[in-house]
Amino acid sequence: MSIVDESRQETPAANWLDRPLWGRITGWHLAYAAIMLFILFTRLWDLGSRPYDHDESIHAWESWKLITGQGYQHSPVYHGPFLYHFSALLFGLFGVTDYVGRLNPAISGIIITIVPFCLMRWLGKRGVLLATLLMAISPVVMHRSRFLRHDQNAIVFGLIMMITMLHYLERRENKHLYLFAAALAFGLTAMETIYITCAIFGSFLFLYYLVQVKPKSRAGLLDYPVMDLMIVMVTLLLPFAAAFPIKLLGHDPVDYSSSALVFSGIITAALLLIGIGVGGWWGGRRWFVGASIFWAIILTLFTTLFTNGQGIGTGVVGQLAYWLSQHGVQRGGQPWYYYLALFPLYEFLPILLGAGGAIWLAIRWRRAAAPAVVLPAEITVASEGQVVADGVTAPQAPTAPLLPLLLYWSVMAFGIYSWAGEKMPWLMLHLAVPLQIFAGWALAEMLTDDWGEIIRQKGLWLLALLPAFGLTLGRLATKPPTRGTSLVELGRSMAWFAALIAALLLAGLIRRVASRLSGKQVWRLVGCAVVMVLLALTVRFAWMATFINGDMANEFLVYAQAAPDVAIANREIRDLSYRLTGGLHLKVAYDDESSWPWVWYLRDFDQAQFYGKSPGAPLDADVVIVGPGNESAIKPFLGNRYFRREYRLIWWPNQDWYIRWQTQSLWTKLRDPVERAKLWRVVFYRDHEQDLENWPFVHNFAMYVRRDVAQQIWDFGCIGLEGIGDHQVHGQQ
């Protein structure tokens, strides 16, 4: 029996669960939790009150059909199948409501803001926190996270592709290659914008291979992880590029006739075999594992759980072919500078931070340019990104090119989406996300300083003094004194002199505080003060766009969207039905001009009737909904048996405000004080010359209620009817 010297025994490290909770929570955790609570509130609160627009109602209705057993078949016109399957799952879990219908994009919007946390290794804790903050308050991300569209899903999978790429470049582990293949597959089932994302990622990897790797000999071309990623991406995507050779050979890739499908199938199969051959030659088993994961996802979703064989053709060939054909159509008719005009109205802060970060990154690269350091023979690099020397492991700086990739993604996305024929406000989401992550890193770099020393020197006073000084300077510049002697003019002159005195006092205080700091610290605080002001303005515009003007056409993020009247009319019809029938048994007829969103809203009405352009016979429906193009044809079938009221169905923003911009005319407007004031009211208040009640860019619909039905309701006001005959008023909020 040996005697153990207890004094030499090491005390086992305490488990992290045994440590007090308050010892593990830091200020960073509290700040991050506060931002996430804000994100959850702004993405999930009151999702169902805003009316469903044309596209949203189609997406919700197809998802509802899928969960209720009525089937779903993929069509390239309505993008990928992932949204419908995921939304159907949510309907099955939580019920079919307008709120649940928008849970899909809301969840994806939340996941998008969590992505910076997965980049902690490259961004650092401060960069993660600030990137998450910028995404939390982003007007574009906040607004678009509450719309049932495919963009949010596609961006999530694009971000996952980026994360797996970065990890594979550093660690070269097969699991990251498999995750990359899965994310690519899900991205293809989400939306066709993933092709643009793949083009950006693929071209970046190729440039990274040429510039950073610089292979010396042909024998070593495949010895780099960046080459692995390129091979996997290209070989898996080859069949999905079949639209190009099919069109070059004189055939229509969106022709789904029997003979056309045979020809398209031959071309697609040839590309598939080429991909299999190259992939198998390169990677063997690991390629086949990744390809199996990829095709399992593709086939399952595009065939609607193996119930629609045609989905293979519409998914693999049809989706890219259809949207390439839409490039020349140029739906929306937007000018080439569409994003150049509108994106800065919402994302001015990440644009400024991104530009500053790009300059700073270029300076750092230039300073860091030096011959590569060769490690001694006894020092090796571990697979987990660590340096091992003499048995001691030390962390190694991350080598994956996150920052160049984010910068490249931001610039290329802006260029490609500006070139693309279809330009829409929801596509700005694809421009905003990579830029905000990069801007978060740039802001973290700007905040890197000895803040303890700044606080001891009372330098934080500059964060309050500088904005106040800027405000007084703005007052002096925009409200000059006058020579008039009226009370109003004298008051204006006195206010100007008061602002002048305040500016002088603030300038003195700023100079006194700044004298205690270095020039670098002063300029850093100036930048922080500007960012604080822009942060506040960003929150203002985000809240205004999302919760005040969320369905108002004075907001440029609103495009071809349902007007508030739709929700009003829907409530009136449902209220009328419950009061008269005790359920959703009211007879409601609707035409082809107003079918969306009414197909969605009337899905539970067991006597809803679609009559197209004309019913062909007298109607006995309790309520008839008709668009302006069909109203003259339907009136003979209605006779004098109905009350009528007019509503707004869909409206558009004032596109003339920016479409008519020309360099000379815009400069003329900026020089004219009256035109400059009008421009400012649109930019800052979204206050257009056109009144919303008389908004010219609108498509209306009329709702007819049968007289005998209305007379059964003692209070006509409860269903919004006023008077008899052809009285026309818009629904009011």
Short description:
It contains 31 helices and nine strands.
Nearest-angstrom radius of gyration? 31 Å
Distance between the termini: 89 Å
Biggest beta-sheet profile:
6 strands, mixed
Biggest sheet strand line-up: 4-8-9-7-5-6
- Number of beta strands: 9
The total count of helices amounts to 31
Tell me the fraction of residues in β-strands, as a range.
Answer: 5-15%
Share of helix, binned: 55-70%
**Sequence stretches where pLDDT stays below 50 over 5 or more residues:** 1-10, 372-397, 721-733
Helix-and-strand structural type: alpha+beta
Shape: globular
Overall pLDDT confidence = 87
Element layout with pairings:
Layout: H1 21-24, H2 27-44, H3 54-67, H4 82-94, H5 98-101, H6 103-118, H7 120-137, H8 139-144, H9 151-171, H10 174-190, H11 193-213, H12 225-237, H13 243-248, H14 258-283, H15 285-302, H16 311-325, H17 338-346, H18 348-368, E1 379-381, E2 386-389, E3 392-395, H19 402-419, H20 428-446, H21 451-456, H22 462-478, H23 487-514, H24 519-548, E4 561-562, H25 564-581, E5 588-591, H26 595-601, E6 608-612, E7 623-626, H27 628-638, E8 642-651, H28 656-659, H29 663-671, H30 673-685, E9 698-706, H31 707-710
Parallel strand pairs: 5-6, 5-7
Antiparallel strand pairs: 1-2, 2-3, 4-8, 7-9, 8-9
